[in-house]
Amino acid sequence: MIAPIVGKLRKRFIFDLSLSLGLGTAAAYSYWYGYHLKAVERQEQFYLKQEREKLNQK
């Protein structure tokens, strides 16, 4: 006779949930620190350059 499978679905759900939260958090940190902050810094530098040129023209 085959023994019933008990608790398999719950263990799989906990594993899937923790894996997805972990990978999602890692992806968010990668995006934030790898792309977003650098893009904001480039944007800030551009606007500072524009302001300096505007002030120097007067």
The count of β-strands is 0
* Count of individual helical segments: 1
For the record, give the distance between the C-alpha atoms at the N and C termini, rounded to a whole number: 92 Å
SSE series? H
- What Rg do the Cα atoms give? 25 Å
Low-confidence stretches: none
Organism: Lentinula aciculospora
Keywords: Membrane, Mitochondrion, Mitochondrion inner membrane, Oxidoreductase, Transmembrane, Transmembrane helix
Main location: mitochondrion
Pathway: Energy metabolism; oxidative phosphorylation
Please provide a written account of the structure.
The structure is a single chain. With 58 residues, the chain is mainly α. It has 1 helix and no strands. The protein has a domain at 29-58. It has one helix spanning 8-57. The longest helix is centred in the middle third of the chain and has 50 residues, at 8-57. The model has no long low-confidence stretch (mean pLDDT 92).
Quick tags:
rod-shaped, 58 residues, 0% strand, mainly alpha, 86% helix, single chain
Explain briefly what this protein structure is.
This is Cytochrome c oxidase subunit 9, mitochondrial. With 58 residues, this protein is mostly helical. The protein has a domain at 29-58.
List the helices and strands and how they pair.
Elements (H helix, E strand, L loop, with lengths): L7 H50 L1
